[in-house]
Design a protein that fits this description.
Elements: E1 5-10, H1 17-29, E2 34-39, H2 52-62, E3 69-71, H3 84-95, E4 101-106, H4 107-111, E5 127-132, H5 142-149, E6 152-153, H6 158-161, E7 167-171, H7 179-187, H8 198-206
Parallel strand pairs: 1-2, 1-4, 2-3, 4-5, 5-7, 6-7
Helix pairs in contact: 2-8
């Protein structure tokens, strides 16, 4: 088996320091060959997102000096709704059966996994890496818990010994950040200097995104 390749799904609207710190930690902790940010065109569970051109531009600015981080825009090129299962099927077809693959999600997404399209098939094509918080104890539905019990893995090395099929929980440093809160902060003309990379802040104000104007510099 080869080194693990992981895909980090999300809207990234906008990408913030919490996203970046999580990606950097996982790349080190799991010795990833590559970690791809996988921006969604529009999540079936969300009503709207910023135009994908801007979201990709901000992602590119944020990872410009990160050689292990990259962007995969396939979901932006596919007609909505965007289903993760379709992406994982396509990735497995491209990489073949020998390459270990993983899909990264937050604990909030994992708890709601039974709402996802064909969710029980996800691990047929990739591992799931679930990003948790050290002090947070989630409550799973009975259906999700039973599904998890058959797949949970406690040793990260196993993610390279198998190509798919496992679920690994990893605790990361808590970042009290959310893109929703940051959009509201920008719109209310408050500072975001420590929450966003400076290059992303500059881009937001240059293009007047999220209600930002040239006069409300952060």
């Amino acid at each position: 088996m080869g080194q693990l390749i992981a895909y980090f799904g999300g809207s990234f609207d906008p990408i913030h320091q919490g996203h970046l710190a999580t990606a950097q930690y996982l790349a080190r902790h799991l010795a990833l060959k590559k970690l791809y940010f996988l921006p969604a065109y529009l999540s079936p569970l969300k009503s709207h997102s910023l135009d994908s051109t801007h979201r990709v531009a901000m992602l590119n600015l944020a990872i410009i000096n990160e050689p292990k981080l990259a962007i995969d825009t396939r979901e932006l090129l596919r007609p909505p709704p965007s289903y993760t299962i379709d992406t994982l099927k396509a990735l497995r077809l491209e990489y073949g059966h020998e390459q270990p693959l993983a899909f990264i999600m937050g604990m909030d997404s994992f708890i709601n996994l039974p709402k996802w399209h064909n969710w029980q098939q996800l691990t047929d094509f990739a591992h799931l890496i679930v990003v948790s918080r050290p002090t947070y104890t989630p409550i799973f539905s009975t259906e999700l818990q039973q599904w998890l019990n058959k797949r949970r893995c406690n040793e990260p090395q196993m993610l390279e010994y198998q190509t798919a099929g496992l679920i690994y929980f990893v605790d990361t440093k808590p970042y009290n950040l959310s893109s929703t809160q940051l959009r509201a902060t920008i719109a209310s003309r408050q500072t975001t200097q420590h929450e966003l990379p400076q290059s992303v802040i500059d881009y937001i104000y240059q293009h007047h995104l999220y209600g930002a104007t040239a006069t409300n510099e952060s």
